[in-house]
Amino acid sequence: MNKCILICYSELAEYFTTVVNLLSQTNYVHLIHYPVNDEAPFEFKFFSNVYTYNRNDLNKASIQLILEKTNPDLVFFAGWSDRGYNSLLGLLKPEQISLLGFDNSFDQSIKQKLKAYYFKTFKKKSFDYCFVPGISQKKLALRMGFSNEQILTGAYTADVDRFNKHYESRKKSNNKSGKFLYLGRYIKRKGIFDLWEAYRRYQKKGGVWDLYCIGTGSEWDNKLEQKGITHFGFKQPGEVSEILRDCSVYILPSHFEPWGVSVHEMAAAGMPMILSDKIMAGTQFLDSGKNGFVFQSGNVEDLCGKMLTISRLGVEKLNEFGEISHNKAQENTPKIWVEKIQRLLNG
Fold first, then answer.
1. What is the pTM of this model?
2. Is the pLDDT of residue 188 over 70?
3. Architecture of domain 3-157+332-345
4. How far is residue 257 from each of residues 156, 191, 214, 300, measured CA to CA in Å?
């Protein structure tokens, strides 16, 4: 018999629709979510067993009415800052499972330690389990009062099957000209100005690869226009294939990234990677020197150096890096994600 799941979510992302659709093949899913970000206007399609609600159209009473009408077996809360969502915690029946999701990393700050203590003392009793992306978040969950048995990891996953197809397509590509790829929003936090300055220095030092940039955002009008850089703007997932097939190395220079699903996506596509040391997904999908390189966030010269190093590797070495990336990406998939939720539902 199908179970019922209520998801109280934040802003939707493309990868999350994949796991929701897969989850709905054996369950009824009711999904409350905020509208998509204007800087990433993805178009989402859901299966028939997924019922969606726009959070901006709902007040506290209407959210509680959804809980009452759906009577879910499990409620998944994305964070604990939404008062409307939090109003459900006191209404859950003993047999209804409450699952908390968050991506905050453990940073050892006094402020975070105090917040974790507060949560452990006053909030933890409202949640049965938590679902976090990786090891850094698990460290924080333990401080918040969750036991090892109550913590699930792998909360963020790429649509691995789709990007595995990109991997096969890239292997068959005859393109031998090197290209760097940036895929993300055009905002300062993503380190885009560091990337463009590093590329400018890379060219001055004799680098010959091009730089392809996909995305849009508040800094679009301030983008660097120069020979070697191509700005494609925002692309829907299905439009990325041709560009991705011709690229050699993925670069994500973020100043802060709680996780970074694009790292998982590019790993599945078999891309060697250059990542800043502030990207938590790198702890799982990048082994520096084996399938790419890590650089110090904000250090333009360090990034430039890594770009020169990787672009001077031969095709055979880059292919070896790419295969390692691809294999690492298989460690978490939408199927594995759904299996974890299903185990909670089945007791």
1. 0.94
2. yes
3. 3-Layer(aba) Sandwich (3.40)
4. 13, 11, 18, 18
